[in-house]
Amino acid sequence: xxxxLQVGILGAGSMGRNHGQQLKSLEDVEITGICSLPLQTAxxxxxxxxxxxxxxxxxxxxxxxxxxxxxxxxxxxFAHDGQVEAAAAKGIHMFLEKPIxxxxxxxxxxxxxxxxxxxxxxxxxxxxxxQSVQRFxxxxxxxxxxxxxxxxxxxWCNIDPSGWWRDKTKSGGQITEQLTHIYDMACYLMGDxxxxxGWMANLAHTDNPEYTVExxxxxxxxxxxxxxASISGSNTSAPMHFFGEYRICCENVTMEYRTTGQPWVTPxxxxxxxxxxxxxxFVEDKNLYLEETLDFLSAIRENRPALxxxxxxxxxxxxxxxxxxxxxxxxxAMIID
Length: 337
Hints:
- Helices cover 34% and strands 26% of the residues.
- It has 337 residues and is an alpha/beta fold.
- The chain has two domains: 5-126 and 292-308, Rossmann fold, CATH 3.40.50.720; 128-286 and 316-335, Dihydrodipicolinate Reductase, domain 2.
- It has a nine-stranded mixed sheet with strand order 14-13-12-11-7-10-9-8-15. The protein has a six-stranded parallel sheet with strand order 3-2-1-4-5-6, sandwiched between helices.
- Helix 5 packs antiparallel against helix 11 (310-328).
- The termini are far apart.
């Protein structure tokens, strides 16, 4: 049996719990430490996972005392203040929840540290692991799909979280924190964005002074190959429904990804249209969080890049930052360097 990978978890919120449960299910992984603020949340996660491992509320303590081949960073974007650089310097591979930072400067600093250290990274854009997406990506790679032409996507929900998410200085807003999944998908399938235009507003939460993020947005991207994407966001949609879906049109092939907004009730589905009558149908019922972890851990063992390395997280931030800057200037076109 191969040696167990020793993995630490930084951040014991909802995503820390999620990834902890995926890791606990794997026989070739040992969770060697959990770090979170306040300390009780780290203790609670250890109890939930039924594991006996060190817990702490200081990342410096974790880094110096907990043996780790890999680290899962499950912290909000505002909480990144050098943890990636410190872990990279120690040769620790990293899984980073999205978005990897609040702004491009912080993200680029993290990516540079990773590149210098030569460690393997994976960013939590789990939608890339959908079966239909991987099939479509293979058709783009072998040329059978033809040139990418247009992408249309949306992420609509209706949540009223307390704390950091609705504070723009901590989450960056819905475009940065949630729609990043759809912007990443557009970049993954269409290429590198070169121009961005955006509009955003807070239309339905003006009575709450603590709600400083947008609840309505539209962004447009033009890519270096000439293709175009339009992406809309809303936090005023049906409660307990999460509509993350998209369509992509290429010269020869079209894909439609659909959701009822409640994939835990009815799995998402997708159709790839290959011609007038020929098509491929998909039911997206895989555990995508487990899939991205399996790819990350295999990448470490095989010494290869994971599907979504940190530079893709930087690209997503570059795109959404340009859309937000455009929106702040009433839709002025922004060049993405």
